[in-house]
Write a structure and sequence with these properties.
heterotrimer; A mainly beta (about 130); B alpha/beta (about 350); C alpha/beta (about 375); A: about 130 residues; three-stranded antiparallel β-sheet; 8 strands; C: about 375 residues; two-stranded antiparallel sheet; globular
Chain lengths: ~130, ~350, ~375
């Protein structure tokens, strides 16, 4: 579970999908980094990311970790967003996991990801839902 | 200066539970509940949905319909709910942060049973009208709870509606013609701190509470504006069940045709602070330029907020810019059984 | 650089060792290796252990264990790269000897995983993944490998039966290994019938939670030969280490273990050998798909052929390219920090001709491949008979 400081520092990425685009080579980093992984330059623009993407791979986790056991089974995927950046997200509102396929279009929606028990903080972020 | 809605949006969770599924567990006569309440099914939030998440999505849809507005220009955000995720820590700040509205913004959470949403709308439009802010967002959202086996369990549902107010005439899609609130201390429904479920005064919630406040507020705004029921294309009333909004609408002199577009409760349930606001989004989704629309909310405690809106020419350009409320209501449904419902609503006592 | 040889090996039986603490199992393995080597003093101790902190609340491990061996005063280093900590401990030991900094090095690995409950063990193991951008969303290690499996299946047509064949083979080998955690026969159908953990990985596709420790003693080759007399001397001719992105979302190709490819390239180059020269290999089968993907990355089989190779018996004990004669992580057990060293113990034993019923006849060149997390770190060693 994340401490208040640790979770707060990630809000721009979790809440607004903010990424860092290298001003030299244009590579988009999510999450942002200190040094560009492509060209090793150090200057970036803050950019948002599209919420539309496609499923690259996925799994149904039948034995979730602590804190997620109530949500079993968990559908988790790697989604490639329209700007080419890949993110790991849960897939929400899947009536039947057998329906999901590699290549399915999805949209990211704001959701509760986890909570630190009944008295701790609630952690928000995005999950993917199948676009129709 | 005219003030009006420049963007609106609604979010309905995808899960549903049928009334007979609940009735069967408590040994109740489903058919008689269905007849008595005029309810068939209601929305159920997932474990990962709450007032904040639904408000963010509804807010995004309102921004989409506002058409390319820099969210940082929004000067106030009000989230009205009776199921704020935290008892202390505002929903509004998470919503504003997610929508890119922070940091120069006024934010407060509101609570007034089912009318906290319209109260937020009133504050939003008033700040714009007073020239205090350029744009203001008022949201009504709830993931309301009903005690197991209680009558409210058949109707307590989840949803959100968001309205962005501004004064730039090229953006206004529905102008605020008038507002009127009628509020008294009437203890028809309440929840004490640390209690899980609300309690209510049974039949006392009818005539002395719901009908008295809605009739007074709606009649009040009609008197204030000199308008008559037949002047309106649509009227939306708070919908705690399927029956009450139709009954109060008819009493005031509205026809079924005027009431039916904003009437969502038989298939949605009662989304509390989202209830009449979501009805308003359904009306705006199909409204024509020039339409007059009346909305009167009701919140236990008790009070009713009324608005008269006049729909502008811009409405037809924006309806399709975000998901249509009725489409969300009717499509993409995932039905759950009572056991799943109880798990999702936190009604099962878990291990420590 | 001096050539480095292994002069002694030792390990404890892997399993749920309720009666033994971390320091006890480590010390038993260390003593076994020292006795096998016939030495009583070392210049340096390296310890591979993924997370004594999360599993038993103990940091400062290398110093603690040096004392445990009655060797307080000796230089000691703990290294970590998740499940590749053992392989990394070997590499650190090799560097000590090859550089001339040390003459005798005790290389060891240990993990005590059963002092915490299953959920806490999963949490500790999960710390090998990207905490913020993977763990945050509720992913588990079976989940990460399941995602890679799905990509591999989509790309190459690898089947669940092929994955299951790896588990069946490794359990067959485990039956022949006295140090293995499990001595049970498992069929392909048993694997497919076992409960789904993370689709498409079943329970029997996954390696277990295990307590264990293993150790080897290193010396410069010349000194080892003097000491060994007529015993077979095993030398380490190749060592390659590489990293890859930890987060799967940052990987270019989810059906490839690029880190293993790079580490193997480096080890093969150093040894002057290629995949075709390897007689026996210990490969990191934390999940069945990992063995399939690793055998492809090591160059034993073409991309996509790893599954058919397993199903067709090519990696079985009597096959063309025997993999995991020890039973692998699946049957022998996966005491995380110890695994990399246990692999070396197996290969050294094979090259010395001491593997009993699981001996690969005439094996003179062997390979170990140890991997951390979902492939974020990879270490490959090549061992040969002198």
């Amino acid at each position: 579970m994340l401490s208040p400081a640790r979770s707060w520092r990630e809000f721009p990425q979790r809440y607004r999908l903010e990424a860092a685009r290298c001003t030299a080579c244009g590579k988009t980093h999510y999450p942002p980094r200190v040094i560009c992984s492509s060209c090793r330059e150090r200057k970036f623009d803050t950019v948002g990311m599209p919420r539309e993407g496609t499923v690259v791979t996925f799994t149904t986790v039948h034995v979730p970790p602590k804190g997620f056991t109530e949500q079993s089974p968990l559908e988790i995927a790697i989604v490639e967003l329209k700007n080419g950046v890949r993110v790991m997200v849960q897939i929400a509102d899947l009536a039947d996991s057998r329906e999901l396929r590699i290549g399915d279009p999805v949209r990211l929606e704001f959701r509760r990801i986890a909570e630190d028990g009944e008295a701790g903080l609630i952690f928000y972020g995005h999950k993917a839902v199948r676009a129709r | 200066m005219s003030v009006g809605i420049i963007g609106y949006g609604a979010f309905i969770p995808r899960r549903r539970i049928k009334l007979e599924e609940i009735a069967k567990v408590w040994g109740a006569d489903a058919a008689s509940y269905q007849r008595g309440l005029q309810l068939h099914e209601k929305s159920v939030p997932g474990k990962d949905e709450d007032t904040i998440t639904m408000s963010v999505e509804a807010g995004r849809r309102a921004l989409d319909r506002a058409g390319g507005l820099d969210p940082a220009r929004i000067g106030a955000v009000y989230v009205g709910s009776e199921s704020h995720p935290y008892a202390v820590k505002p929903s509004g700040t998470v919503v504003a942060e997610a929508l890119g509205i922070t940091p120069q913004v006024h934010i407060a959470d509101l609570e007034f049973a089912c009318k906290a949403g319209t109260e937020g709308m009133f504050l939003a439009q008033s700040l714009v009208k007073a020239g205090e802010v350029e744009y203001a967002l008022g949201i009504g959202a709830d993931t309301s709870q009903g005690a197991p086996g209680d009558a409210l369990e058949y109707s307590a549902a989840a949803g959100a509606a968001a309205f962005l107010f501004g004064s730039d005439t090229e953006r206004i899609l529905a102008e605020v013609v008038a507002t009127y609130s009628w509020t008294t201390d009437t203890p028809d429904f309440w929840r004490r701190a640390y209690m899980h479920y609300p309690r209510h005064g049974s039949r006392f919630t009818g005539e002395p509470a719901y009908f008295r406040h809605i009739m007074s507020s709606a009649q009040g705004i009609l008197d204030q504006t000199g308008l008559k029921p037949q002047d309106f294309a649509h009227a939306i009333f708070h919908q705690p069940n399927g029956k009450f909004p139709i009954r109060v609408g008819k009493r005031l002199g509205f026809t079924t045709a005027q009431l039916e577009t904003g009437w969502l409760s038989p298939w949605l349930g009662n989304t509390y602070s989202g209830a009449s606001p979501m009805g308003l989004t359904a009306v705006l989704d199909i409204a024509r330029p020039g339409d007059l629309v009346l909305i009167t909310s009701f919140g236990s405690g008790a009070g009713s907020d009324s608005f008269v809106f006049r729909v502008t020419d811009r409405i037809t350009q924006v309806q399709d810019l975000a998901p249509i409320t009725r489409v969300q209501l009717d499509n993409e449904k995932i039905y759950v059984d009572y056991g799943t419902y109880a798990k999702l609503r936190g009604k099962i006592r878990m291990g420590e | 650089m001096r050539e480095v040889a292994i002069i002694g090996v030792g390990m404890v039986e892997c399993g749920e060792l309720w009666e033994k603490s971390l320091r006890t199992i480590w010390a038993e393995a260390a003593v076994a290796a020292l006795e096998d080597a016939g030495v009583d003093a070392v210049d340096h101790i390296t310890v591979g252990c993924m997370s004594p902190g999360l599993f038993v609340g103990q940091e400062h491990l290398a110093s603690l264990l040096a004392d445990e061996l009655g060797m307080a005063g000796v230089a000691a280093t703990r290294v970590e790269s998740a499940c590749a900590s053992g392989g990394l401990a070997l590499r650190a030991g090799i560097a000590e000897v090859a550089s001339g900094l040390s003459d005798v090095v005790l290389v060891s690995g240990v993990e005590k995983m059963t002092d915490v409950d299953g959920a806490d063990a999963t949490y500790a193991l999960g710390s090998a993944a990207d905490q913020e951008w993977e763990g945050f969303h509720g992913i588990t290690f079976p989940g990460l490998y399941a995602m890679m499996a799905r990509s591999h299946m989509a790309h190459h047509g690898t089947t669940s039966r092929q994955l299951a064949a790896v588990a069946a083979k490794n359990h067959a080998n485990g039956l022949l290994n006295p140090h293995a955690q499990f001595h049970i026969k498992v069929s392909i159908d048993d694997v497919l019938a076992s409960t789904m953990v993370a689709d498409p990985l079943h329970l029997l596709d996954c390696s277990p939670i295990t307590d264990g420790a293993a150790a080897v003693v290193l010396m410069p080759l010349a000194k080892a030969k003097d000491l060994a007399g007529r015993r077979t001397v095993v030398k380490i001719t190749g060592s390659g280490m590489a990293t890859d992105t930890i987060a799967l979302a940052n990987r270019e190709d989810l059906a490839r273990l690029r880190g293993v490819e790079l580490a193997a390239e480096r080890a093969y180059k150093m040894a002057g050998k290629g995949p075709g020269d390897i007689h026996v290999a210990e490969v990191h089968d934390c999940f069945t798909i990992a063995e399939i993907m690793a055998t492809e990355a090591l160059g034993f089989f073409a991309p996509g052929d790893g599954g058919p190779a397993a199903e067709g018996g090519r990696t079985s004990l009597g096959g063309k390219m025997p993999v995991n004669t020890s039973g692998g992580l699946k049957a022998k057990g996966h005491p995380v920090g110890a695994t990399g060293v246990a692999q070396v113990v197996e290969i050294a034993t094979q090259l010395r001709g001491k593997a009993g019923q699981r001996q690969v006849n005439g094996a003179t060149v062997g390979l170990t491949q140890n991997m951390g997390g979902s492939g974020g770190s990879s270490i490959v060693h090549i061992l040969e008979v002198e």
